[in-house]
Amino acid sequence: MSHSQDSAQVGSDPLDRMVCFALYAAARATNRRYIALLAPWGLTYPQYLVLVLLWSHPSLSVKEVAGHLMLDSGTTSPLIRRLETRGFITRGRSATDERAVIVSLTDAGTALRDELAHIPGCVAEATRLTPADGKAALAILHGVTRTLSSAPAPGDPLDERHSQ
Fold it and tell me: Hey, what domains does the chain have and what are their CATH numbers?
């Protein structure tokens, strides 16, 4: 372990020794922090993530939003519908491909960017990570996500461990 024992106590509980559980617990704790911070605006964390994407990309297809969020369209579409009902985004058919639904910010959705600008800093501060540790954690987590996302599923013909 690279951190001192006082920063992360590892006890006799088998869950304490599982990286996957540590990732799960950290994600849940982060989500709870966002829920509390976003409550005054009535936003969920996934809805906030859609807004963050659209603040950087003026318009995206529902498929592109789903890809960025690593969600399926069945999960993404209700998020988008709720944001549209609240007046933060609009949906419309693509001019070049009528099968594609394009999502864009409204003026109200754009205005939320300034109102919610403090949220990431509040979460970062709550983690008590130094900027260097935060950057290192981000690199590790992106690497874990890439590796696990590209790993063949057990039983998949590409899974070398079980084929012979």
Answer: 14-138 (1.10.10.10)
